[in-house]
Hints:
Layout: H1 50-58, H2 62-76, H3 78-89
Helix pairs in contact: 1-2
Amino acid sequence: MYCSSCGRQMEHDARFCSGCGAAWQPEPFARGPFSGQLVRPRYPRVIAGVCSGFALHYGWDISVVRVITALAIVFLGVPLFAYIALWIIIPDAPYALPERSTGTVA
């Protein structure tokens, strides 16, 4: 993953950029072929990205969505089948490639 402020590559689990100190924020999926569509992000996902997809799409807190989903699965059981179905139905987000720099090579 890359810093949205300075473009420097960041560690997978970093919360701040080591180059400029900017806080990492997931990029919204508002551009490209999946604009406005519910997708399962490639990061931050734990199992399949279903909870992360819903949280990022609707602007909810990821941890709250995960806790509610886990409690519903433990106490009701039926949401497990819904989770597996959504895992199959919701597409993966496209890979985010770093932008190319147009600078000249010396």
